Each structure stands twice: as C-alpha cells, then as structure tokens.
Amino acid sequence: MRPRTHALGLIAALALASGGPAVPAEAAQAPTRTPECQGDWLPATPTSDDVMNGELSFLDRPAVKVGTKVNWSLDPYKSRSWQMVFQSLRWMGRLVADYEATGKQAYLNRAIEIAKDWVEKNPYGGRTTNKYAWMDHPTALRAPALVCLSRYVPDAWLKDSLAVHAKVLADPRFYKIGHNHGLDQDIGLLRIGCRYNQKGWKDLALSRMVKSMKLDIDSEGSLREQAPRYAIYVHDRLRVATDTIKDCDLKVPDDLARRWDGLPKHITAATQPNGYMVPLGDGPPNIQPAGFTHSSETVQVFKAGYVFGRTAWGDPQSAYYSIRFGPGMKYHGHEDHLGVTYYAQGRNLLTEAGFHSYENTPYRRWTMTPEAHNVPVVVGKRFRGRTPSSLVRRSVGKDRQSFTLTDKAYGVSRTRAVLVNHDQDVMAVLDTAGGKVRNLWHIDPSLKVVSNAGGSVVVGEGSWRATLVQLSMPSCKPIGGQKVVRGQTNPYQGWISPAYMQKAPAPVVVSPAASSLLTIIVPGTAKPDVTCSGRTVIVHTSDGPATFKISGSDLV
C-alpha cells in the first residue's frame, strides 16, 4: 500500500529532535559539524566541486555531465549499479557535509536545489517516477543524506519526504532481513527516527538490526552472503550503524557488537598472502583489506562453508588455499561448491572467473555457473542449482591438511577430496561421482601455458613454472586429452575479471572424463615425477618428495 504524503502533517509539524527548528539556508550562520552530516557514510567521489560543475563519476566509470537541471531518468551506462548510486543522492549529501566544513553557501544552495527537484520529480508510486528511485537500497542510502540536509532546511517538502522514506523503510514487505541492504535500511530508519524523535521508528530499526545481523553474520564471524569481500562492506556499515546508535544516545546492543567484532576473523582468513582477498562469489581479486587483526590459526574452517589455509601469516611466499562447501547459493554467492583456489610461491595459481558486475548479461550469468570455477562436473547429468554441500572429513596437521566434501548437485553423489602439503608445495585433488567426471582449472592470467602433453599441463611466468598432472584412478596412469581454453565466447570460457566491469582472457584446463580423476598441482617445477605404489602416490618436487595415500574417496 502506497504511503500517503498528505496524511503526514503530524510528522511535518514536529519540532526537530535536537537544537530546535532549523535555520533557513539564506539566513544560516557559520555552520557547525553535525553527526548527521559527518562521518564515513559519504562516498569520496564525486567531490563537491565535481557536483557543482555538474559532473558525476560513480563506480570508476567516466564522469557523466548532468548539468544544472538534472534528468532523473538518466542511465548513461545502462547499469543497475550506476542508477542505484545516482538515485541514492549521497553525492548531494557530500555538498552538505562540505558546506559544514568550509562554510561555502553555494554548496548548501545547490544541495537544496538537487534534493527538492528529486522530491518533486520522484514521488513514491508516481507515474513518471524513476523505477530505481524507490528500490530498497537507494531508498536506504538516500534517507541519511536527506536527514543531513534537514539540519538546514525546515521546509515541509523535506519533512514530508523523510516521513515517506520512514514509512517505506519500516514496511516489513520492503525489508531485506539478513542482508547488507537490510542493515542500510535500519541505519536510514534510525537516522530519521532520531532526527524527529520518533520512538517507534528508533525501536524498530534497532531491534531489526540486531535480528538481521545475527542472521547475516554467524557466531564464528562469517558473513552468510557468500562473498567474503562483502564482510568488509558490512563491517564498515556496522561502524556507521554504531555511530548512529551513539548519536541517538542509545546503547549499542551486545549482540550487535559481538557480530561486528567477529567479522575481522573471516575477512583476514579470506585474504591471500599478497594482501588481496580471494575472489569468491561476487568478489573481484583487487580487494585489499587493511587494518584488520587476524587469528593465530593458519587453517580455519567456517561452518558457513569455507576452508582457508596458509603456511604462515605475514609471509608473501606462504602457500594459501580456499575450499567451498555449505548452504546452497544465495545473495552474492556463485555455484562454486567443492571449488578450490591455490596460491603458492608468491603467485596466484588456481583462481576463479570472479566478479564482473551486477548487470544481467550472458557474461555475468556465466561467471556464476560451475564452469566458471575450479569444480568437478558430472558428465551427462543435469546440474541442480542451489544444492548444499557437506564437509564430511577433515584432517588438519601443521604441514599437511586434507578435506573431503560431497553433494548431489548433479543428482548423484559427487565427492571431492583435497590434500595440501606444505613442506613441499603440492595440492592433490581426487574427484569421484556416480558416473564419469571431468574438472576445470582456471589459471591466473599472469601465467601462460608452456606445454600440454601426456596428461601434464605446464604453466609459467618468466623462468618460474608450475605443473598440473592428471591421473586416472585406480590405475594411477596418466590420462591425456586436456584441453586448454582461453578467451572463448560461445559458450563463454577462459576469462577472468580482474576488476569491476573488466574481463581478461586466461587459460582454463578442461580435463578428460574419467570415473575417478586425480589432479596434482606442483608449483615450482616443470618436470615433477609422479609415481604410484598401490594406493600410495609419491610426488617428486623441486624441494624433495611428497607422499600421500588414497583411501577410498579420501586423500590422507
């Protein structure tokens, strides 16, 4: 049901919550910095001077000239994300924050023009209102910007619009519980409730925030949105939330504080030795967390569906790996269950196609499929999306770890065993299923394929080499026929997204099919000697031999 603006006279007539009635802009004295307008909730770009010049640059895209009279239907890049940022009006809020810092009246005057024009042109439920204007995230992010402006504008048009924002944000049908959008909705509602001293809105925002964050962040500190890079966003937004709670003279709930405190463990575990986060789910490989305290554990298993392991902390040459399992795909996740990544000897070796954008394009859809990840595929069986997977075995030692995972994503049991050896850098992966299985190995674009013959694919950069060896089990004989794909478009295969809205060709090794397939990745050499004696496999690396055993569908 649409909120009715003409019924909001009570809210519009309320005295402001702090400091009495606002001073009209034309009569304003030297401004002071206010909690509503300051803090880290505002984006760094565009700058106030950019906005004054009528140029908006969002999401690292080239600036768009909007001029003085803004066209609210503008969509220069045909991009949902660009529209979301545009409609959020946080760029207008930048003007008000800088007005407080500089006293430049022109900043405030322009902010008022922009906001008033937006309110007039985009009424809730209006026939010509932009379709993105009242979506959940732009609405949530716009509310604090308008609250900031309300410190200097007492007019009814702004109070009435804030009341509509509050009504929409309070609507349970509109609320995104257990999601970062829900957190932003709570921050927006709390800001409005505090500004106008509306206890009902304040209480609702705070109680929802606690419940939602307990769903979004589990007791181990894992974000359940299935993209570790979003843990950074949620951590930052929880800082904004706690600041808002304190600005309202309210107590930060203990449950909320505990969830916030737990996130750094997940963030740092998902960070590779080179300082960049492993690109899982909607996470590009160029995210570099800073200022987070890490656990002392070198191997961490999170029940939300992650295994993260490394040789040591603080060493860029440390080996590092990730393994995915857990609940079926949701929110920012991809179909990456049973997938692995591997970093060794200062290089990304096995990576993933990664995150390109949120645009509904064939390429975006491909990046979410199993074929864009390092996973086993059951030949001749239909993939069943959103299937959960289980970690059924783990063995964690100082120099060696092994894990076994299983699911029925193809309608039959699919099992993957992963062993990582650290004394001599080796990763071994055993794939079995109710039928023939093949697997895919996405190689970092910095590495080139040097050779592909006899069941061994050698990749390298400069003089450095790494080898991928594949054996058919239980015979333990090399299996040839590996296909290397790079930059294919029909269908998509052989691509990596190094950053937002970018993609680069990169080699992908597509294995032959076998009833049981053992893949061994050996960094640092182009000629690893692999021998078998019964169920024992010996891998001769440049640092000496590494030995492991096959026990059923497990590696030990």
UniProtKB/TrEMBL annotation:
<protein>
    <submittedName>
        <fullName>Heparinase II/III family protein</fullName>
    </submittedName>
</protein>
<dbReference type="InterPro" id="IPR008929">
    <property type="entry name" value="Chondroitin_lyas"/>
</dbReference>
<keyword id="KW-0732">Signal</keyword>
<dbReference type="Pfam" id="PF16889">
    <property type="entry name" value="Hepar_II_III_N"/>
</dbReference>
<feature type="domain" description="Heparinase II/III-like C-terminal">
    <location>
        <begin position="329"/>
        <end position="464"/>
    </location>
</feature>
<feature type="domain" description="Heparin-sulfate lyase N-terminal">
    <location>
        <begin position="63"/>
        <end position="246"/>
    </location>
</feature>
<dbReference type="InterPro" id="IPR012480">
    <property type="entry name" value="Hepar_II_III_C"/>
</dbReference>
<keyword id="KW-0574">Periplasm</keyword>
<dbReference type="InterPro" id="IPR031680">
    <property type="entry name" value="Hepar_II_III_N"/>
</dbReference>
<dbReference type="Pfam" id="PF07940">
    <property type="entry name" value="Hepar_II_III_C"/>
</dbReference>
<keyword id="KW-0456">Lyase</keyword>
<feature type="signal peptide">
    <location>
        <begin position="1"/>
        <end position="27"/>
    </location>
</feature>
